Amino acid sequence: MSSNNLDLICLSHLRWSFVFQRPQHLMSRFAKQRRVFYFEEPVREDVVPGLRSRTCEQSGVTVITPVLPPKFSAEQAADEQKRLLRQVVLDNGLSDYVAWYYTPMAMQFSSFLQPRLTVYDCMDELSAFAGAPLNMRRNEEALFTAADLVFTGGASLFESKRKCHSSVYCFPSSVDVDHFAKARQAQPDPSDQEGIPHPRLGYAGVIDERMDLNLVRETATRRPDWHFVFLGPVVKIDEATLPRALNIHYLGMKPYSELPRYFSGWDVGLLPFALNESTRFISPTKTPEYLAAGLPVISTAIRDVVRPYGELGFARIVANADEFVAAADQQFATPVSADTRDGINRFLARSSWDRTQKEMDELMKSTLRAKQGEPRPIFLSDSQSISTAGRVRNV
């Protein structure tokens, strides 16, 4: 059976309406071929437990949000999400489907499922994030046991996970080149950015414990004539800890569709990440997006930015505020050469989300062909355990 015939249930820790990133890119593309149900993390409200469902007009993805009372314990929350997920499967007549995981914690309420194919798309090392549940690793071990395929969001994660499963494949952050290439042409400045002087050095993405706030603070202090623009939500850190100055501008989260307008008005794209456990395995999606927008990139030494972008000369790598200032000064004095621009364009042409989704789908098809046996029931009974046949692939 072709994977195109199978519905897809995506179990994610990220809200669909949050920053538009890997899950949204991939699920939107899978939804062109099949029904996609995006089961996101629950909201806590003082109401009767239930589900909220909506179908996104642009993508066709059905987004399902569990609603749980604030007083529910972790065990109660897992039991209720199991009931609600079972309801989704039955109400939508799901019998042949793919279970696609972004969070191992979903194993606490979804192990009853009996999909044709189980995919773990490991986009982050979630156990390293601040506030990660203590049983994250144990749930990931269970997910490795259940999974037929494991995809990783970057080379560092691939090296970390390749020994955990027999079918691990690296799919680094990709890019919608056409979307961000709009920024290479002059765009009207958004109203909240038009009054900010140049040069503008911008960052777009989640602002959390992964940011090197001291680097931002020190650099902005050294060069008060440079203006730092931040787009994105502040998550899991106290906003009072953010560096504040007349040349630092927090404009909040922006729709994905509006990002090229903002990028068009920037002079440099920033990746000012701290080097800590939470950034050890990240592969920032913004790297290829900045490059597609025609922006030079300055980044701290994140492994998946250093290789390949730093080594190819597509990004300047810095360790501290002095190096940051020197790199930006050099960039302003020496714009990106035509040869480097051509190299960036060739690289990006091989890095599209369309290509990534297609290659993932081909792996899913080949894995389905390799699997044997009659169609399995929709659910495992609660007394059954999950088992998967071992498969050895070259990775």
What does this structure look like?
The protein has 395 residues and is of the alpha/beta class. The chain folds into two domains: 3-174 and 352-370, Glycogen Phosphorylase B (Rossmann fold, 3-Layer(aba) Sandwich), CATH 3.40.50; 177-349, Rossmann fold (3-Layer(aba) Sandwich). The chain is 32% helix and 17% strand. The protein has 13 helices and 15 strands. Strands 1, 2, 3, 4, 5, 6, 7, 8 and 9 form a nine-stranded mixed beta sheet that branches. A six-stranded parallel beta sheet has the order 12-11-10-13-14-15, sandwiched between helices. Strand 7, helix 4 and strand 8 (149-152) form a beta-alpha-beta unit. Helix 1 packs across helix 13 (353-370). The protein is globular and about 60 Å long. Residues 380-395 have low confidence and may be disordered.
